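User: Please fill in residues for this 122-position structure.
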């Protein structure tokens, strides 16, 4: 499956952005779609994930209550709505897809899209 992420940009703290990840190709019903991010000088970290079949969602503690992951089956697109953004949310955000056991382990995902930059200023 090919993934294309877009929607990043620059906002002030407290602002919102919505990222999109459009998937093309064969999407298996047992796929998990995930978002990860990487800030300069830091390791890539899990942000949120959603199971394609059930819509069950998972998110990192650092974004709970602020970020919401959702999907549009018809458009084969996954969204990450980011509210109450903080400067520490600044990073390149990546989407990934695959049949994973542990949704927060990026290495288990089989496909990855290019990143989209999110910059939050104070």
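Assistant: Residues filled in for all 122 positions:
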């Amino acid at each position: 499956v090919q993934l294309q992420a877009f929607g990043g940009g620059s906002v002030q703290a407290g602002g919102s952005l919505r990222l999109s990840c459009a998937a093309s190709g064969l999407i298996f019903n047992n796929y998990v779609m995930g978002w990860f991010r990487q800030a300069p000088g830091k390791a890539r970290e899990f942000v949120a994930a959603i199971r394609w079949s059930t819509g069950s969602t998972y998110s990192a503690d650092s974004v709970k209550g602020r970020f919401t992951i959702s999907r549009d089956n018809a458009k084969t697109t996954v969204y990450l709505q980011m509210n109450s953004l903080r400067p520490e949310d600044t990073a390149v955000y990546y989407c990934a897809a695959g049949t994973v056991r542990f949704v927060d382990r990026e290495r288990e995902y089989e496909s990855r899209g290019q990143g989209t930059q999110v910059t939050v200023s104070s």
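For context: The two ends are 37 Å apart (CA to CA).
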